[in-house]
Write a structure and sequence with these properties.
- This protein has 15 helices and 13 strands.
- With 393 residues, it is of the alpha/beta class.
- The protein has 2 domains: 27-142, Rossmann fold (3-Layer(aba) Sandwich); 151-378.
- Helix 2 (38-47) links the parallel strand 2 (27-32) and strand 3 (52-54).
- Helix 3 (64-78) packs across helix 4 and helix 3 crosses helix 12 (292-301).
- This is UxaA family hydrolase.
Length: 393
């Protein structure tokens, strides 16, 4: 199946939802509303290995701004297109009530049930009740069938981690070409990692769909620069990892110039907050941290059904409910970490055609959308981290 063929141009087979975009997966999620419920969520996950047990460290002890971000993110994860049903497990005395999460997830059209550990009389009773609910939800999900969906229904998150000097030349360039192909067919692509846009504000602003959006982009990136300088002082220009340096990068601007290549060449249509679903199709910026797992979580909460993740040093990171396609910047690392990589973009450095490799990546994207497991999925790489900006109390 190649890009440009009738088969690919028809879109993909996905799971229709009562509301919103279709899913490329059909997961049942068991979600904690507060960290105190994590043990029960994990126990249900052990009893029902087919569910996705999502736990986190939040739910209490945060100021209003962070509490709202956490709530928005958890609702987005529960209401995700790749999720068929959700069991929300709470303790009973937390700030972020399981009932509130359940109501907001249900409002998005997802089947939801809520369970409280204290109300059930303790962990063992809650685990038994939750296991029965999860098994019933799994049976319901198994009865659903895929239907034809157009590319315009797809949102793809773009991520890079463990970058090297080839990132902007091979893998990010390949993803940018795929992003342009998707946008031309009505899809949405999300470029994240605000820290890794430092030094490129003027370039991104020129690509904004209108002047007001361009101004907001500059304000966001310059604000991130000031924050970085406040915390790191004269080392602010070196906000890159030791692995980035070993891979041939020298400073954040150099890394950023390669990072934004993932977004392709189309106009930027929108700038959205962390964990917020885009309201416009096309290329969208999301304000996320540069840290990979926080960024993936934000884009997942914003509804991205698939992620394209480029890496030069090699990283196995994946996400519980979203297939993450790993794209190696160089052939040496691709061979060394074959168990974790899906695509070798290093062939571009050896003279391979960008158009041909783009077509192959789009074909793979279609296969993943229809159920082909990525390496991160095969390896059970399921990591979640909720972004907060203030102190815990």
């Amino acid at each position: 199946m190649r890009a440009g063929s009738n088969e690919v141009d028809k879109g993909f087979m996905g799971y229709r939802r009562p509301k919103g975009a279709p899913g490329v997966r059909n997961h049942v999620v068991v979600l904690s509303s507060v960290s105190c419920a994590n043990g029960v969520v994990q126990a249900i996950g052990r009893a029902c290995p087919a569910v996705k047990a999502i736990t986190h460290s939040e739910g209490c002890g945060r100021a209003i701004d962070d509490a709202l971000i956490i709530q928005r993110t958890l609702v987005g994860l529960g209401a995700h297109p790749n999720v068929a049903a959700v069991l929300v497990v709470g303790l009973g005395c937390e700030s972020l009530k399981a009932e509130v999460l359940g109501e907001r997830i249900a409002a998005a059209g997802t089947a939801v049930e809520v369970l409280g550990i204290q109300a059930m009389g303790g962990s063992q009773r809650a685990t038994a009740a939750g296991t029965a609910i999860a098994r019933r939800m799994l049976q319901g999900a198994a009865a659903q069938r895929r239907v034809r969906c157009g590319w315009e229904a797809l949102t793809v998150g773009l991520e890079c981690g463990g970058s090297d000097a080839l990132s902007g030349i091979t893998a990010n360039r390949l993803v940018g070409a795929a992003a342009d192909w998707l946008v031309a067919r009505g899809a949405t692509v999300v470029l994240s990692e605000t820290t890794e846009m430092i030094g490129t504000a003027h370039i991104l602003a020129q690509r904004a769909a209108d002047e007001a959006l361009g101004k907001r982009i500059v304000e966001l990136i310059q604000g991130q620069r000031r924050k970085t300088e406040h915390y790191m002082g004269e080392r602010a220009g070196l906000v890159i990892s030791p692995g980035n340096m070993d891979g041939g990068l020298s400073n954040i601007t150099e890394k950023s110039l390669g990072c934004i290549v993932k977004g392709g060449t189309t106009p930027i249509q929108e700038l959205v907050a962390y964990g917020t679903a885009p309201s416009r199709q096309g290329l969208v910026l999301m304000d996320t941290p540069g840290s990979d797992v926080f960024s993936l979580t934000g884009m997942a909460a914003g509804g991205a059904q698939i992620m394209l993740f480029t890496t030069g040093r090699g990283t196995p990171v994946g996400f519980p409910t979203v297939p993450v396609v790993k794209i190696a910047t160089n052939s040496r690392m691709y061979a060394a970490m074959a168990d974790d990589m899906d695509v070798d973009a290093g062939v571009l450095a050896a003279g391979a055609s960008l158009d041909s490799e783009r077509d192959a990546l789009v074909a793979l994207l279609g296969q993943v959308a229809e159920g082909k497991a990525t390496r991160a999925e095969c390896n059970g790489q399921e990591m979640v981290a909720l972004h907060t900006s203030g102190p815990a109390f």
